[in-house]
Amino acid sequence: MNDLIDKQSSVPSYILAVETSCDETSVAVVKDGHVVLSNLISSQVETHKAFGGVVPEVASRKHVEVITLMLEQAIEQSGIRPRDLSAIAVTQGPGLVGALLVGIVAAKTLAMALGKPLIGTHHIAGHIYANRLVRELQYPAMALVVSGGHTELVHLESEGKFKLIGRTRDDAVGEAYDKVARALGCPYPGGPHVDRMASEAEDVVPLPRVWLEAGSYDFSLSGLKSAVLNALNQAKMRGEALEPSAVARGFQEAVVEVLVEKAVRAVREYGSRQLLLCGGVAANRGLRAALQERCAKEGLELVIPPMEYCTDNAAMIGAAAYLKWIRGEGTDFDAKADPGLSLEAWSVQSEA
Ligand code: KG4
Ligand code: ZN
């Protein structure tokens, strides 16, 4: 634990947060864990498009190019003087190690120069607490995390206490969307294209639902992705062409049905007071609509952050870091980037 940080629940806090775990560089200043004073995001997606996916070395270099200027601008836009910042938070993992390292070096340097505490933050805790930027959270809560790198169901017994109850055994949902999109001839990132095609489709290619063993909250996406590729290949061998929109719709319906069923079953079993949707795939219209309809029918409260807080951003890292700040739980300055950082181990240690 870092001795620069004390239990601080009564004074306003201004946390500067840095996120560089993948292909977005982002810096934010967040007041009291939920008021966003600035949140700058520089996306590298155009650079990586040419390669059909994120190239780790290129991502690190791009973070280095913009991080210093973004730190300056995020502080300036927030209207907070650097000396009035309470702490410096940074995504410590999971993510691409070289990309994480850029944010960590920048955050440590700033924290040391200003004499502020450092708070190494879990990226998925950030995605989950993006919901705190728009709503007061009620516990126990259930989070459905769906992004390019993660597909998880996380039970929050109380504030900052994470228990992973289900995860993908192979591809993440966003990753499967991107692979199916590529097979349908769409550019990277393909998720939004598949979503749009699915909503325009008149027909549907039926595809399997992957439930795994009875009672399991895990997911598996690679079999479904293979079923899509097989359907396309078999049609080609027969000299026919499948309507891409019908394939997109079949894929989306198969994904959404399993996500919604498992999330709602988890909410029931754990007595969750809210279902929190988060991650880049939370932008998916089919998923949002199906969850909204199902939750309304069952009388469950569903929280979905606005798009800017669903995709990678530093405001969500500031929101998660606040959990540690109010409990005086800082991070040592010798902390390293940790691509395998455990969410459960990152849980808060004490009551606020
Ligand atoms: O959370 P995110 O921005 O980055 C990660 O931390 O992974 O998620 C990006 C992923 C990409 O795979 C992208 O294709 C997917 O989210 N995505 C979508 C949609 N918008 C973004 N997938 C399905 N439907 C969408 N509308
Ligand atoms: Zn993410």
Automatic annotation (TrEMBL):
Per its UniProt record, what InterPro entries does this chain match?
ATPase_NBD, Gcp-like_dom, KAE1/TsaD, Peptidase_M22_CS, TsaD
Q: Which SUPFAM superfamilies match?
A: Actin-like ATPase domain
In terms of domain of life, where is this protein from? Bacteria
Cofactor(s) in the UniProt record: Fe(2+)
Q: Does the keyword Metal-binding apply?
A: yes
Domain Gcp-like, chain residue ranges per copy: 36-318
Subcellular location, principal: cytoplasm
Q: What does this protein do?
A: Required for the formation of a threonylcarbamoyl group on adenosine at position 37 (t(6)A37) in tRNAs that read codons beginning with adenine. Is involved in the transfer of the threonylcarbamoyl moiety of threonylcarbamoyl-AMP (TC-AMP) to the N6 group of A37, together with TsaE and TsaB. TsaD likely plays a direct catalytic role in this reaction.
Protein name per the record = tRNA N6-adenosine threonylcarbamoyltransferase
Q: Which organism was this protein described from?
A: Paenibacillus barcinonensis
